[in-house]
C-alpha cells in the first residue's frame, strides 16, 4: 500500500488529541530572536506610533520611590532634575518597575483580543506589525505585565508554563493614556543616558505621529526629546523619469520634502567619572545639555498594484494583504544644513546623520541593514521576525521588498537631480553676474560634492543585495544621462571629463570634474558604470582648447609640461595630431605658432637678458622645462653658442660699441671650452675679420690685437677687459696675439747690440704658453745663450761684450755640482732654480738639468780624480730611477763599476755580486755596492754557460782550489741544464794524483767516492768534502764501482787483480757481486758477456793430496774449462776443475759458459 492509504487509514480512527504548547518556552524562544538593546522600548514605541501617539513617557521607578506625582499629558514636566528635597534620588538605585505611556487611541476590542494571541499580527496593511510577537518582548524584562487603556485593563499571569490573562474595567476615567506596567524580573540599573538618548533620537527620526518622548527616573525628568516638522513641499518629477518598479508593482506618484528639527534636553554624564561614580551622585548635581539637528525627509508616495495570486501569497505569509498605497522616505541633511548647523552635532544625533557613512533601513525603527548610500531609508518593507533586517530569503517577500528598494533608487535620483537643478539655477545667476571668485566656485563644488557623496552607493551590509537593487535603479530610472557639476556648470556626465592634474593649468573651456568633487567623490568615479559614462581628457580635448583661445604664458608652460609628461608615458600621437598641436599652440604677444620655434635657451650658455633669435622659445617658458624633454618631445634643440654667434655677429653694435662687444665676448668665453671643435671653428670664421676686439687703441680685428700682459713694447694694441682672464679662451680662438713675433723681437734686440738674454728669457717664459710650436722649435735651435766662463763663475761682475752664444741643449743648468763636474754651464746672474718659471722654460728648450747618461758614466769610469769618480758614481746611483733608468741598458760599453780587486772597473755584464765567483777568476762587485747594482743589470752569479766554459778553458790544477771551486759550483747546480751535465760527465776537470803522485785530470764518469782498498790501484777515488761532492755527484761521479765496472775490470785485468788479492775469498766476493746483476749485464752489455766467456776470469778448484791431506787448489780459468759439480761420484772419479759450490756462483758460470 502507498503512504497516502496509510495516512487515510490513520485519520479514520478515533482518539483525537490536541497539540500541547509550552507557552513559556515558546515566548523564550521568540525573545531569543530579539538580540538588540532596548528592544522593549522599540516595540512599544512602534505600537505607539501605529496608535497615532504624539507623546510617549517612560518612567523608571526604584523600590524606594516616594513620588507618585500624576503627570499631565497635555503639559508634561519640562524640568530636568528635581528640587533639593529630591537630592537623595540617585541613579545607583536599582530599577524595579518600568511604566511606558502613550497618548494614542485607546485599545479596541480587537486590539485586546490580539494581545492575548501569540503570532496574531495586526491585519492593517498600513501598520508595521505583521507577526503578532512584538508585545511579547515585554516578557524579556518582566514576568506578568499589565496593560491599561480606555478604562480597561489586562493582566498577564502564569500557571506553570501556561500564560493566562484577565481583562476587566479598571474604574479609571483616564481616556488619554495607554499604559504598560512592567515589574522587573530582576532589579536593573538605569540605562546609560547617552546610549538611551541616542536610541530614542534615532527612533524618533521616521515616526509619522510620535513627536515627544520624555524619560523619568522616578519623578525626575532625565531626557526630553521633541520633533518639529515643516510643511511638506512638493518636488517636480520630470518627464524623463520612469516611475515604475521593474515588475510594475509600484509606481512613484509624487514626492515631497519637509524640514525636520529634533531637539533634546538631557542630563550630562561627567566625562571624568566612571559609571559607579556618576551613578552615586545626587541627580540634582548633573549638568544639563541642550542640542538640536536639522534634517530633510523626502517622502515618496507609491501606488501598489499586485496580482491576486501575489496578494494571496503575501497574506498567507504576513497575515495581511499588501497595501494599495504606501510610502518610502529618505532622511538626509542638505548642504546648507550640514555646513551651517550639522557639521558639529551632539553624539545623540550621530545615528540620524550618517554622512559620510552609510544610512540604515528603517522599518518603523532602524534595522542593522545599511542602504549603501549616505541616507536613511524608511519603507514598509517586510522585515525578518526580529525586525533587524529585510527579508530577502523568502521568494515572494524578496520580490516585494526588491521592488520597493528599486523605487528607493528612483527617489534618490530625483533628490540628486533636484540638487543639481538648484545648483544650475544659482550657478547661472553667479556667472551672469560675472562673479568668478574662487570662494564662490568652491561653494558650488562643495555643494555638488555633498550631493554626489550622498548618493554614491557602496556595498551595503549585512546584505549587499539591498544596495545593489537601489543603485541599479538610481542609474537606470531616467532617460537622461546623470548630470554632474563641471568646471563650466552642470552637464550630463558623458560631456564631462575626468580631471587630469597635469592639464589643470590650461584646460579652461573643456568641462572637467572639479578637483574638490573628484577627490571627495573618488569612490563614485571608480564605479564600473560611471567609468563607461565619463572619459578622461584626451589630445582631442587639448586641441579643442587650443582652437578656442590663445593661452597665456603660464598656461603655455603648463601645456608643455603636460605634453612632455603625456608623451614620456608612452602615449602615441599620430603625425596629424602632432602637427595640429604645434600649429595651434601659440606663443608670445605675436601669437607665434609653436611649429615656427626651433630653439630653447640654456642660460648657462646664452643669458636670457641678451638678444636672441626670434625662433627661440622665450626663456620665461623654457626655464620651467627640462632641456632633454624639449628636445625629445617638442622637437626643439638647444640654442648652441655657434648658432647664437651666427645671429649676434650681424649686429652693428659688435664693431662700434665696445660695451656690447665686451658682453658678447664674455658670453662666448663662458661656454667656449665645452663646445665641439667644429663650433669653435665656426665662431672663429665668423669673427676673424670683424673689428670686434676692444683695445686701448680702439676696436681691432683679432690678428691686430695683443693680450693685456704683452708688455715687451709699450706701443702694442692690448685688449681692454675688466677681467681679462675671463676671456682668454675666446681671445685665443679668435687669434689675438699672446706674444710678440720672434722676428720682431730679434730685429729689435739685434738692433740694440749687446742684449740681455736674462730679460729675454723672463719675457719668453711668461709668454711660454702662448708660443706656437714652430716658434718653440726656432728657440730650441737658436744660439742665444752664453756659456759661463770658469774664471767668473763665482761672481756677479759684468760679462764680456758680445760673448759666444750656444744652443740651449749644449749647456747645463748653472748648478754647483755641474760646475764641479766641469760641465759647460749657462751663464746666469743671480739665484738659479730649475723649478722657477725661467728655469722650466729653458729646460723646455733643451737646457740640460743634469748630466747625460754617457757623461755621468764616463765621469765615474775614467775621471782622473778618484773623488770626482766616486761622486759621479754616487750621483748616478742616487738618481738612477728618476733620471737614467729610461735610457740605461746593462749592455752599456763603459766599465764604470768598481770591483773587489782594487783598481779594477768592469761593465755590468762583466762582474757579479756573489764574491765566491772569484774562485773561478770572475770579477765580483765591490761589496759596498752589492745591494745597489742588481738594478743596473749586474747578476748575482755568472751564467751556467760561463761557468762551463771556464771549467773547460781553465780547469783547476790543485786539489784545494778544486775543492773551493766545486763547493761554489755546488751552490749553482740548479742553473745547469741537462746538456751541461752531459758535457760535464766526460769532461776531464777533476784533479787527482796518479801512482806517481802527479796531478792529472779525470772525468766524473771515471771517479768513485768509495773504492775497496784492494781496488784503488784499478779505480780512481775522489773526496773533496760533502758540499763539493754533491756537485761532482751531479756531474756523474758514482759512489762505488758497479757490477758492470767490476766485470769490465776482470776482463781487462783479471790476472793482476788475482795476484793482488791475498785472500781467495775477496776474489769470490767480487764474483758474487757480478753474479747478482749478471742477468742485467747480459741484457744491457751482451758484448761484455762475450768477453767474459772468452777470458780467464773465473775461479776454479781441484782437489789434490799433500802431506796425506786432501787440499783444494784454486786458479783462474775460462768458463769452458770449468765444471759444475752436480754429481759427487763423477767428481771423485774424474776430479775435474770445478766451480765453487755456491748457487749464485754457479749461475754466473752457467751464463759465461753458454755459447
UniProtKB/TrEMBL annotation:
Q: What is this protein called?
A: Sacsin/Nov domain-containing protein
Record InterPro entries = DUF3684, HATPase_C_sf, SACS/Nov_dom
Instruction: Cite the Sacsin/Nov domain residue spans from the record.
Output: 26-151
List the lineage, top down: Eukaryota, Fungi, Fungi incertae sedis, Mucoromycota, Glomeromycotina
Q: Specify the domain of life of the species encoding this protein.
A: Eukaryota
Pfam families in alphabetical order: DUF3684, SACS
Amino acid at each position: 500500500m502507498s503512504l497516502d492509504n496509510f495516512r487515510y487509514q490513520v485519520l479514520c480512527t478515533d482518539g483525537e488529541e490536541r497539540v500541547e504548547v509550552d507557552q513559556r518556552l515558546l515566548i523564550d524562544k521568540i525573545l531569543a530572536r530579539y538580540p538588540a538593546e532596548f528592544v522593549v522600548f522599540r516595540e512599544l514605541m512602534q505600537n505607539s506610533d501605529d496608535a497615532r501617539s504624539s507623546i510617549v513617557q517612560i518612567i523608571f521607578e526604584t523600590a524606594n520611590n516616594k513620588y507618585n506625582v500624576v503627570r499631565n499629558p497635555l503639559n508634561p514636566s519640562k524640568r530636568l532634575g528635581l528640587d533639593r528635597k529630591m537630592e537623595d534620588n540617585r541613579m545607583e538605585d536599582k530599577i524595579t518597575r518600568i511604566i511606558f505611556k502613550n497618548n494614542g487611541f485607546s485599545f479596541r476590542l480587537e486590539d485586546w483580543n490580539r494581545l492575548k494571541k501569540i503570532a496574531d499580527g495586526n491585519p492593517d496593511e498600513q501598520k508595521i506589525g505583521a507577526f503578532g510577537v512584538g508585545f511579547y518582548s515585554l516578557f524579556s524584562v518582566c514576568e506578568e505585565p499589565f496593560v491599561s487603556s480606555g478604562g480597561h485593563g489586562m493582566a498577564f499571569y502564569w500557571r506553570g508554563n501556561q500564560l493566562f490573562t484577565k481583562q476587566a474595567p479598571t474604574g479609571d476615567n483616564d481616556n488619554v493614556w495607554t499604559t504598560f506596567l512592567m515589574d522587573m524580573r530582576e532589579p536593573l540599573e538605569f540605562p546609560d543616558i547617552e546610549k538611551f538618548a541616542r536610541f530614542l533620537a534615532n527612533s524618533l527620526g521616521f515616526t509619522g505621529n510620535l513627536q515627544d518622548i520624555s524619560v523619568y527616573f522616578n519623578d525626575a525628568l532625565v531626557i526630553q526629546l521633541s520633533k518639529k516638522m515643516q510643511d511638506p513641499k512638493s518636488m517636480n518629477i520630470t518627464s524623463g523619469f520612469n516611475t515604475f518598479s521593474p515588475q510594475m508593482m509600484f509606481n512613484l506618484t509624487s514626492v515631497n520634502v519637509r524640514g525636520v528639527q529634533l531637539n533634546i534636553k538631557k542630563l550630562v554624564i561627567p566625562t571624568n567619572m566612571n559609571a559607579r561614580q556618576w551613578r552615586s551622585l545626587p541627580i540634582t548635581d548633573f549638568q544639563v545639555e541642550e542640542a538640536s539637528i536639522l534634517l530633510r525627509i523626502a517622502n515618496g508616495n507609491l501606488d501598489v498594484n499586485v496580482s491576486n495570486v501575489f496578494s494571496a501569497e503575501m497574506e498567507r505569509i504576513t497575515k495581511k494583504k499588501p497595501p494599495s498605497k504606501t510610502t518610502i522616505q529618505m532622511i538626509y541633511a542638505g548642504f546648507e544644513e550640514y555646513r551651517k548647523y550639522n557639521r558639529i552635532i551632539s553624539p545623540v544625533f550621530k545615528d540620524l546623520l550618517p554622512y559620510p557613512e552609510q544610512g540604515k533601513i528603517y522599518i518603523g525603527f532602524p534595522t542593522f541593514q545599511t542602504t549603501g548610500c549616505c541616507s536613511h531609508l524608511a519603507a514598509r518593507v517586510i522585515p525578518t521576525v526580529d525586525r533587524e533586517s529585510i527579508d530577502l530569503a523568502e521568494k515572494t517577500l524578496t520580490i516585494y521588498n526588491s521592488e520597493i528598494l528599486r523605487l528607493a533608487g528612483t527617489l534618490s535620483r530625483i533628490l540628486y537631480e533636484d540638487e543639481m537643478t538648484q545648483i544650475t539655477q544659482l550657478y547661472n545667476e553667479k556667472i551672469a553676474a560675472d562673479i568668478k571668485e574662487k570662494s564662490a566656485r568652491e561653494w558650488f563644488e562643495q555643494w555638488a560634492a555633498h550631493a554626489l557623496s550622498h548618493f554614491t552607493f557602496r556595498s551595503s551590509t549585512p546584505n549587499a543585495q539591498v544596495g545593489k537593487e537601489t543603485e541599479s535603479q538610481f542609474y537606470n530610472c531616467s532617460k537622461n544621462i546623470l548630470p554632474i557639476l563641471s568646471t563650466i556648470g552642470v552637464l550630463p556626465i558623458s560631456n564631462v571629463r575626468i580631471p587630469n592634474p597635469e592639464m589643470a593649468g590650461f584646460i579652461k573651456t573643456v568641462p572637467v570634474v572639479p578637483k574638490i568633487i573628484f577627490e571627495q567623490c573618488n569612490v563614485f568615479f571608480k564605479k564600473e558604470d560611471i567609468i563607461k559614462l565619463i572619459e578622461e581628457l584626451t589630445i582631442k580635448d587639448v586641441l579643442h582648447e587650443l582652437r578656442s583661445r590663445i593661452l597665456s604664458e603660464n598656461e603655455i608652460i603648463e601645456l608643455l609640461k603636460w605634453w612632455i609628461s603625456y608623451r614620456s608615458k608612452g602615449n602615441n600621437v599620430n603625425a596629424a595630431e602632432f602637427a595640429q598641436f604645434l600649429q595651434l599652440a601659440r606663443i608670445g604677444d605675436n601669437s607665434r605658432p609653436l611649429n615656427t620655434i626651433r630653439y630653447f635657451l640654456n642660460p648657462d650658455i646664452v643669458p636670457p637678458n641678451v638678444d636672441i633669435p626670434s625662433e627661440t622659445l622665450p626663456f620665461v617658458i623654457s626655464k620651467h622645462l627640462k632641456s632633454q624633454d624639449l628636445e625629445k618631445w617638442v622637437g626643439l634643440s638647444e640654442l648652441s653658442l655657434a648658432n647664437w654667434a651666427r645671429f649676434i655677429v650681424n649686429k652693428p653694435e659688435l664693431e662700434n660699441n665696445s660695451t656690447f662687444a665686451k658682453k658678447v665676448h664674455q658670453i662666448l668665453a663662458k661656454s667656449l671650452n665645452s663646445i665641439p671643435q667644429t663650433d669653435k671653428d665656426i665662431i672663429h670664421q665668423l669673427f676673424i675679420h670683424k673689428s670686434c676686439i676692444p683695445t686701448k687703441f680702439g676696436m681691432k680685428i683679432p690678428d691686430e690685437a695683443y693680450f693685456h700682459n704683452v708688455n715687451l713694447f709699450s706701443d702694442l694694441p692690448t685688449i681692454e677687459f675688466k677681467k681679462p682672464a675671463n676671456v682668454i679662451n675666446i681671445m685665443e680662438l679668435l687669434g689675438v696675439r699672446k706674444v710678440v713675433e720672434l722676428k720682431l723681437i730679434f730685429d729689435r734686440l739685434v738692433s740694440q747690440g749687446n742684449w740681455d738674454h736674462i730679460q729675454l728669457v723672463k719675457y719668453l717664459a711668461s709668454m711660454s704658453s702662448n708660443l706656437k710650436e714652430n716658434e718653440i722649435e726656432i728657440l730650441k735651435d737658436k744660439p742665444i745663450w752664453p756659456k759661463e766662463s770658469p774664471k767668473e763663475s763665482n761672481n756677479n761682475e759684468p760679462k764680456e761684450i758680445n760673448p759666444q752664444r750656444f744652443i740651449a741643449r749644449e749647456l747645463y743648468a748653472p748648478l754647483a755640482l755641474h760646475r764641479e763636474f766641469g760641465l759647460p754651464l749657462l751663464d746666469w746672474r743671480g739665484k738659479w732654480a730649475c723649478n722657477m718659471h725661467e728655469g722650466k722654460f729653458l729646460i723646455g728648450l733643451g737646457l740640460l738639468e743634469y748630466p747625460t747618461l754617457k757623461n755621468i758614466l764616463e765621469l765615474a769610469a775614467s775621471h782622473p780624480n778618484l773623488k770626482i769618480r766616486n761622486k759621479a758614481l754616487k750621483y748616478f746611483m742616487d738618481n738612477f730611477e728618476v733620471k737614467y733608468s729610461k735610457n740605461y741598458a746593462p749592455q752599456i760599453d763603459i766599465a764604470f763599476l768598481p770591483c773587489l780587486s782594487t783598481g779594477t772597473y768592469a761593465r755590468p755584464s762583466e762582474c757579479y755580486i756573489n764574491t765566491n765567483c772569484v774562485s773561478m777568476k770572475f770579477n765580483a762587485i765591490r761589496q759596498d755596492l752589492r745591494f745597489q747594482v742588481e738594478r743596473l743589470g749586474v747578476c748575482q752569479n755568472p751564467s751556467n754557460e760561463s761557468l762551463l766554459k771556464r771549467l773547460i778553458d781553465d780547469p783547476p790544477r790543485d786539489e784545494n782550489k778544486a775543492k773551493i771551486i766545486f763547493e761554489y759550483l755546488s751552490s749553482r747546480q740548479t742553473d745547469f741544464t741537462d746538456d751541461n751535465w752531459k758535457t760535464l760527465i766526460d769532461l776531464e776537470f777533476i784533479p787527482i794524483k796518479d801512482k806517481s803522485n802527479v796531478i792529472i785530470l779525470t772525468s766524473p764518469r771515471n771517479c768513485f767516492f768509495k773504492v775497496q782498498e784492494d781496488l784503488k790501484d784499478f779505480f780512481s777515488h775522489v773526496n773533496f768534502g760533502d758540499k763539493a761532492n754533491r756537485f761532482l755527484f751531479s756531474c756523474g761521479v758514482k759512489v762505488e764501482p758497479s757490477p758492470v765496472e767490476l766485470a769490465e775490470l776482470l776482463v781487462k785485468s783479471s790476472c793482476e787483480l788475482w795476484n793482488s788479492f791475498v785472500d781467495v775469498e775477496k776474489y769470490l766476493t767480487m764474483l758474487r757481486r757480478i753474479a747478482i746483476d749478471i742477468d742485467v749485464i747480459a741484457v744491457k752489455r751482451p758484448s761484455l758477456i762475450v768477453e767474459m766467456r772468452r777470458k780467464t776470469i773465473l775461479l776454479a778448484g781441484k782437489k789434490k793430496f799433500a802431506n796425506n791431506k786432501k787440499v783444494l787448489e784454486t786458479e783462474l780459468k775460462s768458463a769452458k774449462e770449468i765444471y759444475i759439480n752436480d754429481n759427487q761420484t763423477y767428481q771423485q772419479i774424474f776430479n775435474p776443475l770445478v766451480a765453487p759450490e755456491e748457487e749464485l756462483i754457479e749461475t754466473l758460470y752457467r751464463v759465461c759458459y753458454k755459447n
